[in-house]
Amino acid sequence: MPKKFDLFVIGAGSGGVRAARMAGSKGLKVGIAESWSFGGTCVNRGCVPKKLYSYAAYYTSEFETMRSFGWDSKKPNFNWKKLVSNKKTELLRLNEIYLNLLLNSKVKIFEKEASFIDNETLNVGGEIIKAKKILIAVGSKPRVMNFSAGKNIINSDEAFDVNKLPKSILILGGGYISVEFASIFNGLGVDTTVCIRGEKILKGFDSEVATEIMKQMGNNGVKFITNKFPKEILYKKGKFDVFFDIKKKERYDLVMEAVGRVPNTKNLNLKNTDVKINNNGAIIVDKYFETSAKNIFAIGDVIDRVQLTPVAIAEAMIFVNNLKTSRKKSFDYKNIPTAVFCNPNYSYVGLSEEDAKKKYKKINIYRSSFRPLKYSLSKKKDKVFIKLVVNKQTDKVLGLHYIGNGSAEIIQGFSVAIVNGLKKNQFDKTIGIHPTSAEEIVTLK
Q1: pTM for the predicted model, two decimal places
Q2: Which DSSP symbol is given to 106?
Q3: Burial grade of 84 (CB within 10 A; 0-12, 13-18, 19 or more)
Q4: 43, 99, 121, 166: least buried by Cβ within 10 Å?
């Protein structure tokens, strides 16, 4: 006899775990399947380890800044294997927390892969499962390119655990994952090069901001190859020969692909269901996360709307709350605060200048660029860059962009104001804390 559930969740990432926990707390009989690590991409191969490594990379800069304040000592040694080991210990702790959250919510856990037999039936590691409702929350995985050296090229999942730091690395792609890892490797002393097909990194972000980040990363030692991309990559005797044309090649110790992510639907056997996917492999859902199969739902990266952990969690909350009500709610994807943990950090909330011009007749742009007090005694070239996008007709703030240390902490606070529709003149009424870099946000003219 098959095991029966009110709700069965496929994938124990942040969204899947939240949905399972909340549904369990509402008295539903819930099961969840996860064939890898509890916590999903964010905890194990994304946000958390990335931020830890970003902290590690910043210490090189901090050590140099110390000298300008009178501190003098020998440059400390960095131990890559110790960082990797400590990271693994922390992730195991987080895995255990996620597991206990599920157990405490009386969720039945299957540490196995799940695939569909039909719309209501799953094969979970050989066990047959029946569920009234099924939630797909399997996330995404790195997109893979087709080079001869493919099996030796790493992706973002593997970058955290390379055996040793290379002397040089080529990172393919210019999205936020590429930019963040470029800053990490560069900060840890690796000769780092980013290769992009176009002229700028961070396509889809504010263009002026992307130019500024590229400039500042360059000042910090990251190299950029623009308007070209490898035609072939070969792996010989522990080195990568990268051919940008037939005759010209460059040699690197390591090559990393960071050319986007794709929905992780390959092993679900969706062909056995009525679930429809788009050309990218993402599951198509309506505003209530319902697929074309009425009892199957999907949230998170696998629906490829906004691939951020807090978004997946918010989607999960809405999905579960809608299960037992006729007055359903949908998720508002506007004004989602976002951070890129490159060096320097970049965060924003709201619209870019380009998107604001598409939606509104007239806008005002307020900018400020300055050297923060922390670096005033040193030779460091990093600058804080602030950009405010305002609707000229209503004075409503449409977007706030901030480049500089601690930008995510600053934008998290200001996002409350922007999400709630504050106007530029209300920013102007606010007294700044002096001396801080963030005070400039409320004094922009």
Answers
A1: 0.96
A2: T
A3: middle
A4: 121
